[in-house]
Design a protein that fits this description.
The protein is built from 17 helices and 12 strands. The protein has 422 residues and is an alpha/beta fold. Strands 1-7-6-5-4-2-3 form a 7-stranded mixed beta sheet, sandwiched between helices. Helix 1 runs antiparallel to helix 3. It binds pyridoxal-5'-phosphate. The site of pyridoxal-5'-phosphate has 16 residues, from helix 4 and helix 5.
């Protein structure tokens, strides 16, 4: 099946006489014929559902679809993208361990890594994308457990050199974890370039309608956890499951099985069956929507780049963009629907432009069907001075626009009338 078909057909496959559409199994619990069977379930010797905190049929079908879209051996949905990022690291790192992350990542992930993970003893070491391999590798030591990056960074929009990051990680015997939220598996499947684990905030394009917060972790099954003795939690008995050894008993699905049976069991960041149902609806149209998001964004970026009221435009699909060549390699069919740009006249002009938009709404979100805008300097980063904003890489004039799937001429008309007010 091609990826457009997988969006529709993977996951739930009804048998004779069963409902055509994925049912919502709104049940926390499951019924068994014998206590012996339930005992085997608890020892992970039989597959099946124990309790909806750990797994649920509706959620499982959606996980199967996402695993198929990314080309992985298994997936686990979480209650949010933040939970996916947290569990993806905690599954293989504990107090005293560290990991290397590229610095251009989502702000919420920066806080999670640099503040909360630090407090539980897991240290993040940030690498700048323009560092040499040697400079990045100098960040590694014997307790480094993973490398983390975003395919297309939110909001910096730079494209990760996935093959290079994977090569660095693998030279040090650790996996590469990639947040593929902005690219989606429609435009990039990081496993094909050597990434080992993929995560998503499904809240963004996968849901696509801004209706449900969620996340997912996908396991490629390709990383060999048994080499080098760095991951005893995967290669030695788990006493909380009567001595299960994940790599021995679950093979290629060791990482994702442990994430579920240990961390989802203990942390309980599980999605609801209803949330999974809504996510599945979004996934059915993902390929169609991504095509439109990107073709619209490309046209808007080209318009802005040629407009004399615009100071600068950042979009990986524009020739001359620092990520243009990487985008051609990793995202040949298009990057994403998010653009950032500056209007001439700085902070005041940016505010005036935003307030003049009629179709594009001011929203603290990206990547849904409706075109929306955010001016970080007057909202999410409003406590910073102009100098502090520049130091944080967010100019006072920066506007982030998430291009929706409306008719592109209507989006352009709205931008043109707002620019005319300046
Ligand atoms: C939004 C986002 C997250 C966090 O996901 P939530 O679903 O909001 O918890 C993580 N990574 C990226 C790239 C995001 O855009």
């Amino acid at each position: 099946m091609r990826i457009e078909t997988k969006c529709i057909q993977e996951g739930y496959k009804p048998k004779n006489g069963e409902p055509r559409v994925l049912p919502i199994y709104q049940s926390t619990t499951y019924k068994y014929d014998s206590s012996e069977f339930l005992g085997a379930l608890f020892d992970l010797k039989e597959p099946g559902h124990m309790y909806t905190r750990i797994s649920n049929p509706t959620v499982e079908y959606v996980e199967q679809k996402i695993a198929a879209l990314e080309g992985g051996v298994g997936a686990m949905c979480t209650s949010s993208g933040q939970a996916a990022s947290l569990i993806s690291i905690l599954n293989i790192a504990g107090a005293g361990d560290n990991f290397v992350s590229f610095s251009t990542i989502y702000g919420g992930t920066v806080n999670l890594f640099a503040v909360t993970m630090k407090r539980i003893g897991v240290e993040v070491r940030f690498a700048e994308p323009d560092m040499s391999d040697e400079e990045i590798e100098a960040l590694f030591d014997g307790r480094t457990r993973a490398v983390f990056g975003e395919t297309i960074a939110n909001p910096a929009l730079n494209v990760l050199d996935i093959e290079r990051a994977a090569a660095i990680a693998h030279r040090h015997g650790v996996p590469l974890i990639v947040d593929n939220t902005f690219a989606t598996p429609i435009h990039c499947r990081p496993f094909e370039f050597g990434a080992d684990i993929v995560i998503h905030s499904t809240t963004k394009y996968m849901d696509g309608h801004a209706i449900a917060v969620g996340g997912v972790i996908v396991d490629s099954g390709n990383f060999d956890w048994t080499v080098g003795g760095k991951y005893p939690e995967l290669t030695e008995p788990d006493e909380s499951y009567h001595g299960v050894v994940y790599t021995r008993d679950f093979g290629k699905a060791a990482y994702i099985t442990k994430a579920r049976t240990q961390l989802m069991r203990d942390l309980g960041s599980s999605p609801s069956p209803m949330g999974a149902f809504l996510l599945n609806l979004g996934l059915e149209t993902l390929a169609l929507r991504i095509e439109r998001h990107c073709s619209n964004a490309q046209k808007v970026a080209e318009f802005l780049a040629n407009c004399d009221k615009i100071a600068w435009v950042n979009y990986p699909g524009l020739p001359g963009n620092p990520s243009y060549e990487l985008a051609k390699k990793y995202l040949p069919e298009g990057s994403c629907g998010v653009i950032s740009f500056g209007v001439k006249g700085g902070r005041a002009a940016a505010v005036k432009f935003m307030d003049s938009l009629k179709l594009a709404a001011i929203v603290v979100h990206v990547a849904d069907a409706r075109t929306c805008v955010l001016h970080p300097a007057s909202t999410t980063h409003r406590q910073l001075t102009d100098e502090q904003l520049v130091a944080a890489g967010i100019g006072p004039d920066l506007i982030r626009m998430s291009i929706g799937i409306e008719h592109v001429e209507d989006i352009l008309d709205d931008i043109k009338q707002a620019l005319a007010q300046l």
